[in-house]
């Protein structure tokens, strides 16, 4: 167990690392951020920083010496980096989880073995394999690179009549996965935490609306049946336990409405995020314990906090030029503004978010 005054090493220096460092500081823990990007926003709020490439073993060794344990804010940390650090300090969640979630095909195969429903999928190594996969799965379907995809990057829809060879080349000819289109009614996610001792705590299921593949609005609770919400939490717990997970995890799911039931709503898992998650930002103002504090508690070996929601909550991302509206947001009654300290607004770049908490009856 990490004692107050201990140091947590964070790989990556974006807004998630920034909010983790702030949560740790409130609990008397120091954060040391490692990132190759000089102006990352987490550098502004951490106790110590290392700016170096993830392949710089001398810098990584010094980083490991300066911290008590290591975590990460994004899942594309190189496997070699995680392995190097794990030989020197505890890394939580375990790097094996990184290896799984970095590969969309491996992740889907894991879920399939676990008996969790996903989109129908097939491995695609070349244009010929894509043609065979489309013949099996049908159209429309979605072609995704197996690695390095987020916020809609690294994927393309294969509609009726599309030239499959062109679609494959558009993703750089990398190894891909083809997934069937899921006719969902809504997208939801479960943000939960698992401790070293196997303790588990989940926040209520939240509902997510995306624009141009980027999360726009999250509302909690999701407008789904109670039995569907319970099933979503149970799926998340099963995944966390199968991975022997320690920390906060998010599982994104599609809700498919069915004319014949029960169940009247079917859950299809889309993706696992082995970290704090954008759809959990509402917990900063809307829950007894934020997802960031919860992650710190879990990896430090501390008791997990309450996930009680303060009311009905809405979180809206500030994307690109949305951030220029900060003054008006501050004037809104009940609006809680969080700015990430990024210097340059760009289209598609998350610059901050705003949360509002309402009484349940409103």
């Amino acid at each position: 167990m990490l004692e107050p005054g201990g140091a947590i090493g964070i790989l990556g220096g974006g807004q998630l690392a920034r909010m983790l460092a702030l949560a740790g500081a409130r609990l008397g823990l120091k954060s040391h951020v490692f990132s190759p990007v000089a102006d990352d926003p987490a550098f502004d709020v951490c106790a110590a920083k290392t700016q170096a490439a993830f392949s710089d073993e001398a810098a990584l060794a010094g980083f490991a010496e300066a911290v008590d344990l290591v975590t990460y804010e994004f899942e594309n940390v190189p496997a070699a980096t995680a392995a190097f650090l794990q030989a020197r300090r505890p890394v939580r969640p375990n790097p094996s989880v990184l290896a799984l979630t970095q590969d969309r095909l491996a992740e889907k195969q894991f879920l399939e073995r676990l008996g969790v429903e996903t989109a129908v999928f097939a491995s695609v190594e070349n244009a010929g394999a894509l043609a065979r996969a489309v013949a099996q799965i049908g159209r429309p379907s979605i072609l995704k690179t197996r690695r390095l995809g987020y916020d809609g990057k690294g994927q393309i829809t294969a509609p009726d009549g599309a030239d499959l060879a062109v679609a494959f080349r558009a993703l750089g000819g990398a190894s891909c996965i083809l997934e069937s289109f899921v006719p969902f009614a809504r997208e939801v996610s479960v943000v939960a935490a698992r401790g070293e001792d196997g303790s588990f705590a989940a926040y209520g299921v939240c509902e997510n609306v995306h624009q141009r593949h980027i999360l726009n609005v999250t509302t909690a609770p999701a407008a789904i049946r109670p039995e569907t919400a319970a099933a979503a939490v149970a799926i998340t717990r099963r995944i966390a336990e199968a991975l022997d997970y320690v920390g906060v995890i998010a599982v994104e799911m599609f809700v498919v409405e069915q004319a014949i039931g029960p169940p009247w709503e079917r859950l299809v898992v889309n993706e696992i995020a082995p970290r704090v998650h954008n759809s959990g930002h509402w917990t900063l103002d809307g829950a007894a314990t934020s997802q960031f504090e919860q992650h710190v508690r879990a990896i430090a070996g501390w008791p997990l906090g309450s996930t009680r929601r303060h009311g009905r909550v809405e979180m809206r991302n500030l994307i690109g030029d949305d951030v220029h509206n900060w003054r008006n947001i501050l004037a809104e009654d009940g609006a809680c503004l969080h700015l990430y300290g990024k210097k340059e607004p760009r289209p598609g770049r998350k610059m901050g978010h705003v949360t509002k908490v309402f009484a349940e009856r409103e």
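The chain has a mean pLDDT of 95. The first helix runs from residue 15 to 26.
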